[in-house]
Amino acid sequence: xxxxxxxxxxxxxxxxxxxxxxxxxxxxxxxxxxxxxxxxxxxxxxxxxxxxxxxxxxxxxxxxxxxxxxxxxxxxxxxxxxxxxxxxxxxxxxxxxxxxxxxxxxxxxxxxxxxxxxxxxxxxxxxxxxxxxxxxxxxxxxxxxxxxxxxxxxxxxxxxxxxxxxxxxxxxxxxxxxxxxxxxxxxxxxxxxxxxxxxxxxxxxxxxxxxxxxxxxxxxxxxxxxxxxxxxxxxxxxxxxxxxxxxxxxxxxxxxxxxxxxxxxxxxxxxxxxxxxxxxxxxxxxx
Length: 287
Prior knowledge:
Blueprint: H1 3-8, E1 14-19, H2 21-24, H3 34-49, E2 53-58, H4 61-68, H5 78-101, E3 107-112, H6 114-117, H7 120-135, E4 139-144, H8 162-173, E5 177-182, E6 187-188, E7 200-201, E8 203-204, H9 209-214, H10 228-241, E9 244-249, H11 255-260, E10 267-269, H12 279-283
Parallel strand pairs: 1-2, 1-5, 2-4, 3-4, 5-9, 8-10
Antiparallel strand pairs: 6-7, 9-10
Subcellular location: Cytoplasm
Organism: Candidatus Enterocloster excrementipullorum
Binding site for ATP: 18, 182-183
């Protein structure tokens, strides 16, 4: 049983929460779900009220751009992806800032690229910026800069997805908990949407090669990019850096408060701090 480990989540002080596009949009239309976003903002503002440091890694820029421009399919070219991201990131931040302001909660936009993070000086500056924002009580809202971050642009690689980005941010700022909100309840022995006999896994004491292989058969949703394989890679980064991680269903964003209260929701991955942890190894896929 993981009752004891769950109770320890109540004591976490620096939390990174990642929410995916599929958890921010209406499944029928792909348009932003403003009611759910408002609930998310209320929950995060409450966490700040408890004295927690909170960082939000938010997908949804491309989906918001598609909505703004009346385009209802995933972009089918690099140029479209970049254009939707440019339009959508501005709209997404406008929504976040407007709703957070109703709770008198300051926010900041932080757009990251892998190219920036692999540079020692830039990475150090990013870390200092996060630390100062959190000291000031600000909630940083993080996304990858999709306008320029793509492996199809020479010399500019990408994080791959926001699951991995959120784990890298957690490691960068020394977070002690990472919560991934997704369109699935947590980790299963197989994809439950394809195999009704798949068993739910509540606790993962350690990331094993077998576990990583198990996740490779899954794929992302129609509006997101990350499947279970990406989440397990994120779990490896987070737990090696010293953070616990929980994968939970983002359909009801109040699940965040349940997790923080020690309620048995989602799959809990226990931290296994690696004394030789070096973020650069993970940025360069050298692990």
